[in-house]
Amino acid sequence: MGEKVSGSRAELVRFATVGAFTFVVDNAVWYLLKLTVLEGHPTTAKGVGILVATIVSYVLNREWSFRERGGHQRPHEAALFFAVSAVALVVNVIPLYVSRYVVGLQRPHVDLLTQEVADFLSGSVLGVALAMAWRFWAFRRWVFPETTPETPQGASRP
Questions:
Q1: What is the pLDDT of residue 156?
Q2: Tens digits of per-residue pLDDT, 86-104?
Q3: N or C terminus: fewer CB in 10 A for the chain?
Q4: What SS3 state is found at 154?
Q5: pTM of the entire structure?
Q6: Cα(138)–Cα(106) distance, rounded to whole angstroms?
Q7: What long-range pairs does 20-24 form, CB within 8 A, spacing at least 24?
Q8: Which domain holds residue 7?
Q9: Would residue 73 count as lying in a domain?
Q10: What CA–CA distance (Å, rounded) separates 90 from 128?
């Protein structure tokens, strides 16, 4: 039991490290697009940032965070990963959408600084936290399940 808990803790630390790196990727792409070609479309820019970060996340999580897990062939695993990540993308942009279009924290209703702080807090703090919790649980549950002695790594599970 103690070995399982420490393994889970190690997975969480690796997952959080990948998350920190992809947080930077997401925000770099988001702000680059939001301040240039997608200036009037912050939720679209955020979605593209999340998509780029998701691709990076798959590679890093597969090869590092959950490398000791298996149970699915790669195409099945990738399909599950991107399905879980699609739900996470929606979860992530909902707080930004609410901040901008329901609460009205956008120009001209507020100044530029207020808009940008609200965007960051709703899109990159609250949205990311909610999506991260969903992804960690779903990845461990469906995408990278534990292999059992009767299920060799890479084999399909029933």
A1: 47
A2: 999 999 999 999 999 999 9
A3: C
A4: coil
A5: 0.77
A6: 33
A7: 21/56, 21/60, 22/53, 22/54, 22/56, 22/57, 22/60, 23/53, 23/124, 23/128
A8: 2-143
A9: yes
A10: 11
- Number of residues written out for the chain: 158
pLDDT at 2 over 60: no
The widest CA-to-CA distance across the chain, in whole angstroms, is: 61
Rounded to the nearest integer, the mean pLDDT of the chain is 88
Residue 112 within any structural domain of the chain: yes
pLDDT top residue among 8 and 83: 83
* Contact call for residues 93 and 123 (beta carbons, < 8 A): yes
- Residue 50, domain member (yes or no): yes
The owner of tokens 């949205």 is 127
Cα-flanking dihedrals φ and ψ of residue 125, to 5°? -110, -65
Q: Is residue 158 part of a domain?
A: no
Per DSSP, helices labelled H in 61-121 are 74-97, 112-119
The total number of structural domains that make up the chain = 1
